[in-house]
Amino acid sequence: MRILYTKSPTRLDATGPFLYQLRKGGKIYPGHSAIRVRAMSSQMIFDHRSFKGDVAVVPISSSDTIRLNGRRYRGALIFHPIGRGRYDVVETLGLEEYLYGVLPREVGSDWPLESLKAQAVVSRTYVIANRATDPVQRFDVFNDVKHQVYGGLEDEMPAANQAVDQTRGEILLDKEGKPVQTFFHSSCGGCTETPENVWFKTEPSDMFDSIKDDFCREDPYYHWSIELNKSTIIARLRKAGYKMRDIQKIVIGKGSSSGRAVTVWVYSSRGKTEIQGNRFRLALGPEALRSTMLTKITLSKKTVRFEGRGWGHGVGLCQWGARGRALAGQKYDDILRAYYPRATLKRAPATLRVQGQPVLFAGANCPGDPVALR
Predict the structure, then answer these.
(1) Tens of pLDDT, residues 39-74
(2) Rounded to two decimals, what is the model's pTM?
(3) Can you point out the beta strands (E) in 15-156?
(4) Euclidean distance between CA atoms 170 and 164, whole angstroms
(5) Domain segments of the chain: what residues?
């Protein structure tokens, strides 16, 4: 997993002695204090030592951890020079340990355990379904919203680790026995969405339904509003490739059964521009336009006010909904059944093959009996 992409120098140290060497082999160098790491052309520079190629860093003792810019990481770190002074830092670690660093960044660690367990299963399945299968790729997943937010050992919390441990190896499978593309989001605003209404290139999936969901009402952004200057909207739409000089009107073109905007029509002096709803949201900024469940659009001379419900694309697990269901007494398998009604919860074998590639469950002791969700 890539934890950093930068041109800036980084500070490398550990909680104890550590070792570093070229990944392909060669002389091993000990580290006892902080090292300044940077890239120059296609080489990695560790203090005054140059390495032509990838450099691996590991602690000597399994009880110690590597630190990068003050943050602790459980796994080994690989530094990849990629030219022009840029480099990647990739952490290699087991899937379950990876999840320890994901859950506290994706949901509240003070949430009910059953909702954390549901998120653990969803996050585990998601990373397996989305891991890189190209052998040339240097890492399987990103550590941000491109895949799942990951904070390393620094962000781990006991409750989240407990949820991971109590669901160890459990994933959601479709009717063909493949890992489900377990999309998830913060809150659905009262109704979930189906993938084809969000991502037009996505084939309709029988793994997802649009379901009424009243369990996410405690989300602080269940109702939201934002006012943006027309000039800001124009600039952001231009950056996304939509040419316009002014805005005269914005309306929902086509709506889905969940109440979301499948398309948005933006009227200007040049006529009507139709924009796919999710693209419109991403163009304006997902932190600004929190969802496409728009309940009201009001234009003034210089601004546009958007009102809506929920946060995120609305497909799959509603995280605030899972919290509400857990508080109402639902177990994690009940929660998963609500959002992925035709998936099967299964404790995977120690090695699962996805698209011909092995996925290892570090330390897993996983029998193969399915736990039916139906």
Answers:
(1) 998 899 999 999 999 999 999 999 999 999 999 999
(2) 0.87
(3) 18-22, 29-31, 35-40, 43-46, 49-51, 55-59, 66-68, 71-73, 76-83, 86-92
(4) 9
(5) 2-92, 95-182+316-371, 223-309
